[in-house]
User: What shape does this take?
Amino acid sequence: MSNIVAIVGRPNVGKSTLFNRLTESRQAIVDEQSGVTRDRHYGHAEWTGRKFSIIDTGGYVRGSDDAFEGEIRKQVEVAVEEANVLLLVLDVEMGVTDLDDAVARLLRKSGKPVFVVANKVDNPQRQHDAAEFYSLGLGDPYCISAMNGSGTGELLDALVAALPDDEPEDTSGLPKLAIVGQPNVGKSSLLNMLIGEERSIVTPIAGTTRDPIQQRYTKFGHDFILVDTAGLRRKARVKEDLEFYSVLRSVRAIEDSDVCLFMIDAQQGIHAQDLAIFHLVERNRKGVVVIVNKWDLVEKDQNSAKAFADHIRARLAPFTDVPVVFTSVIDKQRVFKALEEAIRVFENRKKKVRTSELNDFFLPIIENNPPPAIKGKYVKVKYVTQLPTTTPQFAFFCNLPQYVNESYRRFLENKLRERFDFSGVPVQIFFRGKAKSED
Ligand code: GDP
Ligand code: GDP
Assistant: This one.
């Protein structure tokens, strides 16, 4: 299960600087591979072998303390609900403000591990000033400089020690499904349809003690696990009018899933807030089925579904090879179909294509449409293989991997998708130099 660390605090104390420092090295690797734009507020970090996700809750709240006090309170409340560990960042130059006191009070009540981070301790002199932060009643402050990195090692040592132990991997092999989307699109209604009757609950998965969020269900002849059902049932206490809150609420469910049922409201269409969630799914390389719900409320003619699906895919570009299902959960329309598609995507995500099959397919295509020559040099692809990874990754071995451009990579991905069904699954394509032994 995922571990989530949230950074909270007033504007300008250095939250995003700290976020960048903690995510930097790993982020660079992750994003180079996925080609998905880096998110400034959500990323992955690793320290002494422990992995966790990190969220900068300040990302969407900018401005003076007064104007944003309400926002910051909300931000802290959501962060407290969703995170395992919280970092309260303070500015040693400013000392303790009233707002800091108010935030500290919320954090003390949460009962979750909180680290007081005294930032901008750029020189030893300032360590004395940080002593003031003891008064917040949250323990010893960690003195750091997010800007130059000093003190962050000690902070990270303590932080990973406070993360809950990794729970044993669920080895049932069943599809783990998450229902994600904006508030009010129909997520809880779908959940209730899928698991409504108590007797559809077969057995809780062993080892998931922290939060009984993973449960095994049987419905429509399929066995599956729904993740974060507790989160879905716990109705939002704050009105989630900002993109940030729905993203924050989706992080855990997405990270713990294999396939996401990504719901949108047919009447509302697809907006930036929906896309933020979709990109989170894509970045975590989870499978996805797009569910256009409340289809009963839309006036339809014969072409509606097709036109709607085209419109949605255009917004999802470049990752357009996704199943789109039109449901009315209220009328029990096509919920079965949505589940079927999720299972199919789950199978696609596990799929392994034999090397011989890949080469028989790709080498003639590449022969006929070689990568464009650069500076008079020709790229020669020798062979293709699928890597033994949990999500589909393909390596094209060639003489000049650095010369292959993004549009050629897309060309190969499209061919791959046309020939082998990877619908709903993000795939990665790498170009690699020839293995030494083959020179
Ligand atoms: P946020 O609003 O809390 O995300 O704060 P930012 O990360 O945007 O930082 C606010 C300002 O403080 C910026 O001008 C940073 O360069 C500066 N800052 C951040 N960390 C440090 C630090 O460790 N030392 C000093 N001197 N300045 C810092
Ligand atoms: P959530 O916030 O995403 O969990 O959304 P809910 O499941 O609470 O649904 C929000 C509202 O939409 C409720 O009033 C539901 O009854 C309604 N709703 C859900 N699915 C449908 C549907 O397929 N058609 C119509 N007309 N209403 C729906």
